[in-house]
Fold this protein.
Amino acid sequence: MRGVLILIGVVVLLGIVAVATGFVNLSGDEGKLPEVSVQGGRAPSIDADVGRVDVGTKDTSVTVPKVEVGTTEEKVEVPTVDVKKANEE
């Protein structure tokens, strides 16, 4: 019984995915793209204030396990990310 319910659920899910992705067209209407003519014009000019992301490294002490019993602290270079909002220096 459980297997039949799972199978029905999978079939319904596949049907929904097929319709949503356009694999199955239930209307049967093919349609037609419009004819478009473009003359002249220019691309819009855009002035954008954007943030800045600074990526770097810094030396940090971390605990590193050794093959021997116990641990030792070693200096390693770890990545850093600094995100600043637009118009913020």
About this structure: The first strand starts at residue 52 and ends at 65. DSSP finds one helix and two strands in the chain. The helical segments are 2-20.
